[in-house]
Fold this protein.
Amino acid sequence: MAPQPSNTRAAQLTTSGLGAQFVSPRKPRNKLKTQTLVELPGQKAKQDKLQAKLAALLAGKPTSSSEPTTTSTSPDIENTPADAYEDSFIKNEVFPLIQPDESVPPLNTSECFTSLDVLSCRCATAAQVLILHGLFPTSPSQPRMAVSTDLLAFYRALFERSCDAVNALASALHTHYVRRGFRMTNGKGEFIQEPFWQSLGQAILWFDVLQVELESQLERAVQASRDLVEASREPPEHPAPFIPTVDVIPRERCAVILLQRCPACFGGVVFGRKLEEGGDIHVATDGNFHHRHRRSAGDSPHFYDPSYFLPKAQVDAIGRHIDRTRKSAPKPHAPLVPHEAIDLCENSYEAADGKKQKAAMDSFDDTGVMALICRHDIPLFFANIDTPGEQQKYAVALIDHLFALIPGGATVVTLYDVGCVLARSLSQYDILAETVTKRLRFATTAMHAYGHEWSCQLIYNPRICEGLGLSDGEGTERLWSRFIRLIGIQRSSSRQRRLWLLDRQAAAIGLEMRADLGDWIRRRLKRGIDEQGTAAQATLSECDATIEDLRHQWALQRQSQLSICAHAPARLKKELDTVFALQGDLDASEKALQATSEVISKGNVSQCTRDAIESLERSHQRLMDKVDVLYASLNVHDRFPELEGINVEFVRTLLLARDLKINIRKRAIGSFFEWDKLDRAVGSTQQALGTKLHQQTRKAISKRQPALLAALRKFNGYCEHLEELYEPDCSIPLPTPLPTKLNELRNDQTLMKDIWITPSVGDVPRWLDDQDVRDGIRAMLKRDRCIEEQRRLGLEADNLCRWFGDELAAIELALQLPENIRFSILLRQRREHLQHLQIRWSNPLVSPLQFESRARHAESLAMRISGASQECALHWVPLISCTTSVEEEEGAEDPEVTATFFDDPPPEHLALDDIINIDTLDSEDEEDIDIPADPRALITWHTPQRVIIDAVPPMNETTVIIPGILRTLVCPARDAFPQQIFEPKDIKILASPTALLNDSLINGCAVLLYLDSLQASPTVQQYAILSTHDLPRIRYNASDDMLWRNISRTKYWAKDVWIIPIHRPSGVGHWVLCIVHLQSKELHLFDSFAEQRPWKSEVKDIMKLIVRLFNIARQHQRVFKVDVDFYGWVARPLIVKDRGSD
């Protein structure tokens, strides 16, 4: 018998050459295969044909190319021999190998004009036939030119990035064809200068209108699915024992148009947040007068209905209503800011003056645009400005339209450059309904706030207002920067085309910014909350005052600076200016009179000359006395009783310094804005200014800078003079001089502070005198805004996740409805876009798992509504049998006992337990137990009855630890408890009355206390003491096996009461305790600090722990001692008063 080949590596086949090169081993041939070789038909003829041609080429003989490539009749393939068929195949498919004729230039048919004969009829018009072939006609009825739809789609995408570029595209096409020898001529044979401009523009316009109509039909189909999804939601049902801790607010939604534009702002379902806490929605509004339209450009027929612009009739109706209400007397109201301060703000801003002409109405019929955006800079609505100035009707119309689209309980904060002026107008007149004004709050934008009076900033500055977070309201400025390319184009376009350009550009910007919401949240978390919050916390840590002291000082500052006495009335200021001007003239005449007297007295003068000089001095003195009488007649001390007894010269200089500082602040802020305009291109953040505008800005700065520097020097002179006249008894804080360098002035915080003109009662307040307190107040406000911003970002992230699930469910349902079959491609594109948003919107506040869960729920919800059955793929696991020999050892289990193991379901069935229903021994019992997916417990802040609080024994603070004596103590394992080890460092912690306990000490001491108590009283057996690590395992989703290994020793299923120690790592670290009473379904909470807020999340984790342990015990065939019911649980505190370190 021949030896069998070895399977070793050495027996493998090799090839000769450089060493032993192994080859792939031959596989055994399948004996079922036949040994007959199959010849392909025509293969022999094909090889002969190719070899003949190859031989002809090698011999230098040209091959004949006169063979026809097509035949007029179809050959009989079935009756044709294989060789003949193969020859025909070669003739038709293989090109002859010949050298091209260089005298004939190659013709590229893709770069020339093509004439097409389009056949149309009543059932298929010429436009429909062209579109069917991928061409879009340039006119609707008799088109003579058509443009590729691919080119129009590309231009539509280009328009979203570079605005209107039809002129550039038409000129580029004309140049492209001219360079290739193709020119467009008219009927006379003359060349046309711009052959594509008008036709291409019309094609682009109507192609976009057609796309908008298609999108609107698609939106209606999706909206029908949204309605079905919303109708399928059942109201939340609570079991009878459940008592909500707060009022159940019905589910409310904003209008669909708002949801589609910014789901982060308008995707909530619960509204009614107090305005003092920041409200529900933040929006900003502002006007721009660069987007004008020349009257000479004319108008065009109506072809497009803007989705962003309010109708002119709606805006005009608001304007007429404002005019009617202003004819009535103002309503009495308590102003938040003195009217004197609001008047100064109104005079400072051009936006507050609706009558000021900002554009020549004889040259422009549309003078600007008013925008309303959300706090994420997404445009919401626009109003076309057709008046010379920025009248209030535009902002009021936008706000009124917004309130018509939000729930009745939603609150809104509007940021506006002159929000203080508009807020006062709405308070004085019934411009908006009371149901709107009570849900509306105004604030100024962050950048423009520094041009307002300080008392106005205390109420309207978003960086100072409570609840506004880091909303700045400057998104309108960023929006205008994106519209800057449209300014020149829209001025010469028709009025209808101007609105179309702005509306379509706003839509493109809105979609782009909506997709960027996830990145926006991440940037705000990093650059806003992280960086600014860290800097504020560092300042607070260096401040000597506590947070409570800073809040108290801030309250005193607001109260003092919002007082009416802090603002001189306008009439008094005017009269004082007249008196001070007269006083200045008299001072100048007095100096001239003294100089004349000194010169004359040196020479020999007559008595008549001396009498004349003395007469002039007496007359001057009488005028000075009259000025004092005039000043006294102003009743300054009556209007300001605090100034009684203070030197008149001091008061006069103080008021002059106050007015001068207000003027300096306005000049300086204007100069700062101009420098920012010059530096706008630094870091490539914005578009740089043109040469002309740059030169004009620098010229304006250099022109105004000397006046500003002179005012600064004059103000510092006033400060020096006030210091000379200062009397300590007056208790008026002296103003601080300002730096004369503009760079230092910009960073000087005292520039925004008004001069204190009234004496302070008692000592000078710390907020005015202590620089450390002033820095601490600013840091405290910044930290508060960062905390508010983080909370709002969390709500917005939840809104994004919720909207994603609802929108995906609507699209999935629309795809399954048969009436939407024509939109299937567009719906799939929307679904792919949403799936891409799922990745982009993931952020630290909403994990990708939450989006995945929403996606799965949306798919199942759409399946349920449509009635379609969701298919589940079943994968059968092959059975593997193996035999193993196991030696019997001592203590091995009885075969009869181990045999019962095979009654349990196999592992493959456990994996498919949710698909295959397996009847086990415990299946009937499992159906009788209702286990909620999200167990809850009602937290009521009342102590349970019959609670006895033992007195805390005094701490022994005389314990002394002698080094070298301590050694490790070991408590042996006992009563299912593992071995407890106490290191010397742990014993030192126990001996110290102020040291912080760790996990090892809490767990070890609990075991010792339990064992000692068990010897004293057998009733202790009803208690199960859990470890400090058990609740964190629930939070981190530990496996059931890990929980069972660590907790089964306590035999918790046989206990009535569970004791759970909990550690709170916030601050310095704090230990609390929860006692679970299974029989009464109560959680007793112990916290020596009596804090209520942290228990809300901890109670949820405790209820999850109870459910998990219950399920694990059932899996291991453990029966609970008491009947566990997971509904109607109540959590109560054991103490409600702070006991501190007790």
The first strand starts at residue 14 and ends at 15.
